[in-house]
Amino acid sequence: MTLVLGIETSCDETAAAVVEDGRLIRSNVVASQVDLHRRYGGVFPEVAARQHILSIVPIVQDALEGAKCSWTDLDAVAVTYGPGLVGSLLVGVNLGKAVAWAHRLPLIGINHLEAHVYANWLAPLPEDASESTSLPPEPRFPFLCLIVSGGHSDLVLVSGHGDYRLLGRTLDDAAGEAFDKVARLLGLGYPGGPAIQEAARSGNPRMFDLPRAWLKGSYDFSFSGLKTAVLLIIQGYEGLGQKPLKQRSRQTGSSAGPQESSLPVADLAASFQAAVVEVLVTKVVQAAQEFRVRHVLLAGGVASNEHLRREMSAQLKIPVSFPPPSLCVDNAAMVASAGYFRFMAGERAGWDLDVAPNLRLAY
């Protein structure tokens, strides 16, 4: 049995976890800063770094207690060193190096994007020791992984542990960033992904014919034009040189009448979500056919989107896997899992490990 302590502070989640053999979650503690940053409509880097300093030591202690283990039970420490916010990363990396040095444990630096991929390997340890552990099937190489989050939209071909090839990435806004910005435009609050998904439940995804940036001949993504299209529609409803459109009543099928109608937030949210998902799914399906992969994985915060999960599963004839929502967002269990596989491969980080805010997974 190999136990790895994972530490994650790349953005606004302070997290620590203990994972057994890269798959079983013994503990996974996350301190969210969402309430701190909601007033800004996004993450305020300096506030995030200061909060990490306050939270990180108690979070690590809670992770060890939750796993019912001590420092002497651990085999290694894995810590995220990039990409992310430089101040936030420094807190985690410095603590990781300190505890690894103090307890004479190997240190492993982990790419945050790689950690998201390994969320698909994880399962919680049963609370009842008499119950058998139900592990998800291990992903089958070669596979595609779509990593979609607030900062990244990467489509990666994975041929083996540590063997990555970047097929496409966002050229502007990441998918999660677009969700956040459109949610702000619609007055839905922060974070935008869950807010838009909830609003879209009662909306008509065909109400607005929003653009799709296909970028033919590549697997790259672009969502800035889609965001701008939503903004122009909202401005039209606000009377900036245009009359508001009439809103169709989905209950009666009748027009809203000659009066000016209010902004159809649910319809706009549903139409926006459908446009993002259609592009993501279409690109993945094309890449899966071209590279003849055996499996498709979703990872990152946007991977918790229910519409994306349904459409991806429906349109692919090969297995599609995605973590539970709690493992799609930033957490340390995925860091520990990725650290286990690198540890078993003999990799170790030096004590000069530094943060890499712009680190990429593959080129």
What does this structure look like?
With 363 residues, this protein is of the alpha/beta class. Helix content is 38%, strand content 18%. A six-stranded mixed beta sheet has the order 5-4-1-2-3-6, with helices on both faces. A hairpin with a 4-residue loop joins strand 7 (143-148) and strand 8 (153-160). The radius of gyration is 22 Å and the shape is globular. The model is unreliable at 240-261 (pLDDT under 50).
Question: What does the secondary structure layout of this molecule look like, with pairings?
Answer:
Elements lengths: L2 E6 L4 E8 L3 E9 L1 H4 L7 H22 L9 E7 L3 H17 L4 E5 H7 L4 E2 L18 E6 L4 E8 L2 E7 L5 H11 L6 H9 L23 H14 L27 H27 L3 E5 L6 H10 L4 E2 L3 H4 L4 H12 L19
Parallel strand pairs: 1-4, 3-6, 4-5, 7-10, 10-11
Antiparallel strand pairs: 1-2, 2-3, 7-8, 8-9
Helix pairs in contact: 2-3, 4-11, 5-6, 5-7, 5-8, 6-8, 8-9
